[in-house]
Design goal:
This protein is an all-beta fold and 331 residues long. Helix content is 0%, strand content 73%. A six-stranded antiparallel beta barrel has the order 5-6-9-10-8-7. It is built from no helices and 14 strands.
Amino acid sequence: NMLGGWRGNARAAAGPADDMPLRYNGRLNANRITGTEQTSVVAGVRNTTGKVPLNTTSRSQLGYGGFGSQDFREGGVSFTRKPGKSEISGHLQYTGYDKSVDTRNQSESLNATSSTFSAADNRPLNASNVLKADAVFEYRPDRFHTLYIKPVFNMTLTGAFSNPMASSFNGDPLALVDNPNDWVDFDFRGGHFPENDPLASIRVNSSNNRNSSYSDRFSGSLAAYYVTRSEKKRGRNFTLRVDASINGGTRDQYVDYFVFYYRKKDTDPKKREARKIFVDNSDRVYSVSPCISMNEPFGKGFYLQTTLQATYRNAVLLQVVQSQDTSVNGA
């Protein structure tokens, strides 16, 4: 007998991976059913890790490629209830993930008379969280009257960060150090250059670019109607319906870009170039639409339907941009 109790299953697994974070996978689901109720619950977590293959192009590619991890989360619940002459049901669902990648690349570009070398590091991070919910309420006291209400809500939150760092050289850095990538991961915005830099004699430029963004999006809606049917005249009914919605969100983006050009001759000036940009976008949209309709039969097989509907909509959009460019010559 499946009625009256909880039934479900769970599974879990974990284990080490070669030179990578621990792998794991777990999932749970449970159900409960009675004569007038039903409830289901699900939850799960897992991660996948893998070595990202190096993208080989026409250049002579060297280096490591990348390693990354992805962590996923999910959960949800759904239910149905039938108290008396009404019925209530709903769903709630959550999904989310965190992703990170550590990439290291080295390359050589072959020119007509010389070669240009480069080394780059980047560790981008991405995250997302999504929540969805809806419910339905229906009430039928008899076969002549019906009340129906359905709200829906969705929200998405995302974030991202990256900090690519790179240097270019007019000579082969592997002739001076075992790993050139060890000499690109530093913050030189405030003059924090590595002491006794073994690659200073062949550096052409170095860049450090910080990017971050955050966004949230939401939407909600409500549908409600009431229907009454005539007990005396078949086909005659009156309906009152209201639809409302709201949606919008914000997105913030920040860029902090810095390039340092090295002096190769005593007569050449060192040069710093910096750029900072901040962009904020936001929007809100509201709408309401009430509707009244009547259906009146006359004759055999003929109906007259009258509908009165109004719609109100309001939209607000806003964008803010701030930027600053700086170029400085000198040591």
